[in-house]
Automatic annotation (TrEMBL):
It comes from Gloeocapsopsis crepidinum LEGE 06123. Its EC number is 4.1.1.20. Pathway: Amino-acid biosynthesis; L-lysine biosynthesis via DAP pathway; L-lysine from DL-2,6-diaminopimelate: step 1/1. This is Diaminopimelate decarboxylase. Its cofactor is pyridoxal 5'-phosphate. Residues 76-324 form the Orn/DAP/Arg decarboxylase 2 N-terminal domain. Specifically catalyzes the decarboxylation of meso-diaminopimelate (meso-DAP) to L-lysine. The modification N6-(pyridoxal phosphate)lysine is found at K93.
Length: 468
């Protein structure tokens, strides 16, 4: 596991945003974070320690202003740097729930969904189907039907799916509508980027997307099937990326593909360059700002269009992490501790790998503060352990914190992306509640699970019941 000892950290104050107009993905705490007169952390005008008293522990705390600000920075950067049409989609795999989809949609974003469940959630949140795009490398017929009947766009990933959709009416029998199915094609660009191998998707050896060597066959197939209305091309090269060059290279490659499509009589108008912009989890991380990233992509697309002499396409991107990652923190209550002399001190909190599986899955490194002791000197190096029956259930290997005691509120930073959405009930722990905070008001957006919720799907056959 990587060392997480930050050089020179003196207290939780260290992590407060320094400027009000920051790019949220470059901050560790939400933009509204401050320390109040009781030396406690406040987010969205709400005292975090009081929120835990009110809503229980652990608690995901989502700052509405930070999420809206990130949406706005993407939207406005496209307006500023791209003279053609554009659309930002929120990749809801980062955190799919009604409130988050509703906020993204109110900010003018569309939604990228990757399953029937995410699609259903976005539809229930009132997102307009013409701004919904369904991904997936093995979509079921049920998922395809839901997408088609709701009118969203399907991002076709492979031959099996393409053939199924090419013969859609014969596959499903009586089609509800004879309109062609609105699709895009996902291609694997063969572009490498430096991120964890599990979250890299653009290299050729990836389970996602068509092999670009088969472009001619794919375009020929699409051009011969009137059931398909192919509006554009998609590629995504990976996640938590700090370099700008891979997306700029991608832009050039995609414009060439678009040009090739026209030689098959396919008039595609949309290019989607995926998501992937990284965020700051520790002070060592240095991602570009949202504006810089958008500017780089827009410039690369325009240059490539000039070279290929083609009109500007409608430009889409689908960030997840950089929209919501730093808008949320997770608050836990400190419980037991154990000192192994000469080795380390473990401090246990009331959650762990079930509410944040990223450390155990990707060796991800996080920072933490003690919400009720924000200015206390961080003089101790401790290991933050979860409560699961698993030695690897360590949230932070070496956290530098003030001396803490049972009842303190430990807050792990930048947990908005791929935490709730990857949470589980391992060891039958109930998933925490989530609240959205804004201007001093907190509202529950996800109820805390109860023991009854945990048993919701259990069935006890009569022959196993002790009452028979
Ligand atoms: C197809 C696709 N689009 C968008 C995203 C969102 O990526 P990120 O959260 O890194 O912006 C992902 C996840 O990597 C993805 O697989
Ligand atoms: N779940 C990953 C990101 C996956 C990206 C989806 N393609 C993470 O937590 O970093």
């Amino acid at each position: 596991m990587l060392s997480t000892h930050p050089a020179g950290v003196q207290s939780g104050r260290q992590f407060l945003p320094k400027v009000t107009d920051a790019s949220p993905n470059q901050e560790l705490l939400p933009l509204t974070a401050r320390i109040n007169s009781s030396d406690r952390l406040e987010i969205g005008g709400c005292d975090v320690t009081t929120l835990v008293e009110q809503f229980g522990s652990p608690l995901y705390i989502l700052d509405e202003d930070t999420l809206r600000n990130a949406c706005c920075q993407y939207r406005e950067a496209f307006k500023k740097y791209y003279p053609g049409e554009s659309q930002v989609l929120y990749a809801s795999k980062a955190w799919s729930c009604l409130a988050v989809c509703a906020i993204a949609s109110q900010e003018g974003l569309g939604i990228d969904v990757v399953s029937g469940g995410e699609l259903y959630t976005a539809l229930q949140a009132g997102v307009s189907p013409d701004k919904l795009y369904l991904h997936g490398n093995n979509k079921s017929l049920e998922e395809l039907k839901l997408a088609i009947n709701s009118g969203c766009t399907i991002v076709v990933d492979n031959w099996h799916e393409l053939r199924t959709l090419g013969h859609w009416s014969s596959v499903i029998g009586n089609s509800d509508t004879n309109d062609p199915v609105r699709i895009m094609l996902r291609l694997t660009p063969g572009i490498e980027c430096h991120t964890h191998e599990y979250i890299r998707t653009g290299h050729l050896d990836s389970k996602f997307g068509f092999d670009p060597n088969q472009l001619d066959e794919v375009f020929a197939f699409v051009s011969q099937h009137s059931a398909l209305n192919c509006v554009g091309l998609h590629a995504h090269i990976g996640s938590q990326i700090f370099e700008q060059q891979p997306h700029q290279d991608l832009a050039g490659v995609m414009v060439q593909w678009l040009d090739k499509a026209s030689s098959y009589g396919l008039q595609m108008q949309e290019l989607n360059v995926g998501g992937g912009l990284g965020i700051r989890y520790t002070e060592a991380d240095d991602p570009p700002s949202i504006e810089a990233w958008v500017k780089g992509v827009c410039t690369a697309i325009q240059n490539a269009c000039v070279t290929q002499q083609i009109a500007l396409p409608k430009l889409l991107c689908e960030p997840g992490r950089s929209l919501i990652g730093s808008a949320c923190v997770t608050a836990y209550t400190v419980g037991s501790s154990k000192t192994v002399p000469g080795i380390r001190t473990y401090i246990a909190i009331d959650g762990g790998m079930s509410d944040n599986p990223r450390p155990i899955t990707y060796q991800s490194v996080y920072r933490a503060v003690v919400a009720n002791k924000m200015s206390a000197p961080a003089t101790q190096t401790v290991t933050i352990a979860g409560k699961h029956c698993e030695s690897g259930d360590i949230l932070i290997k070496e956290a530098t914190l003030p001396p803490s005691e049972p009842g303190d509120i430990l807050v792990v930073l930048a947990t908005g992306a791929y935490n709730y959405s990857m949470a589980s009930n391992y060891n039958r722990l109930a998933r925490p509640a989530a609240v959205v905070v804004k201007a001093g008001e907190a509202n529950v957006i996800l109820r805390r699970e109860t023991y009854q919720d945990l048993m919701r799907q259990d069935c006890l056959p009569a022959r196993l019941s002790s009452e028979t």
